[in-house]
Amino acid sequence: MIAEYNYVVIGAGSAGCVVANRLTEDGETTVLLLEAGDRDTKPEIQFPIAWTKLWGTEVDWAYFTEPEPYLNGQKIFCPRGKVLGGCSSINATIYIRGNRDDFDHWQNLGNPGWSYADVLPYFKKSQNQQRGASEFHAVGGELTITDPLAPSAIAQQFIEAATELGYHRNPDFNGAQQHGAGLYQLTVKDGQRHSTAAAFLSPILHRPNLTTTTKALVTRLLFEGTRTVGVEYLHEGTLHQVQVNREVILCAGAFDSPKLLMLSGIGDAEKLRSLDIPVVVDLPGVGQNLQDHPLVLLGYQTTQVPEIAPTSNIAEAGLFLHSEGRLDTAPDLQFFCGPALLVSCSAFK
Question: pTM to 2 decimals?
């Protein structure tokens, strides 16, 4: 007999843990949460300073791009969380929202409900802000947001240098404006990482209407016509199928969500046929137009060994600015400054 749920959430990452939490608040709603990775028990996950040690391990998909023609054929490392909490379990714990202009632009493109004013209440609902409630922040939510416990002298000096150059000091990149220099706030609670798994999933694992399965790799969506009616996944070497009577919610990230859609027959029909994938919906935009921001690392040798607190996330201070001096648009440059240089990822190739 095939199990049936109201909802199946694919991916227990930054989005999936939140979705599973909200849906199962209704005790009559059944949810299956599928995660390809394992539980978030790896010790390094808990310590903000250790996040680069997670790259290329069992909790990271460790993706690389294809050779980049404009970078002399280099392959660029793209870490992606393969664990409960997803990328929120392996990132630098920085809490940063999208710029107000980005959300308003989405609405102006014809997507009602996506303006900054529309999404701000949801950011606030999820937040337990160390600084207290304000126009842009709230307390009492699941996700703890804190200031750095012991920022390095180098981070503080970076902010001072930026203000001397004419950039204003910004105490809150998630407040009234984003540009300027300041310290990043962090998804850290009591000195340890507060991932979406820790914040939204662990406290509700006891709910009888939630089933969480790890090491479950979803292979395709199941259809009746063009309606999704189930999911197929691989668990411990065996293929399983489950039925869904409401929705399948795809939270597999920027890479694996479109990949799974295409494997399920939703995408560019010509490309799908070339791979012998039966076409369910001809939707050429799936898997296209993925854009990422380049990251350039600069290191400076100091005359003294900097002190780095165990609670440091390395990328402590930031600066948002406009490359062409325009202040009427969202910043298009973002700086990170910390007391140590990130290591090269070439060993993971």
Answer: 0.94
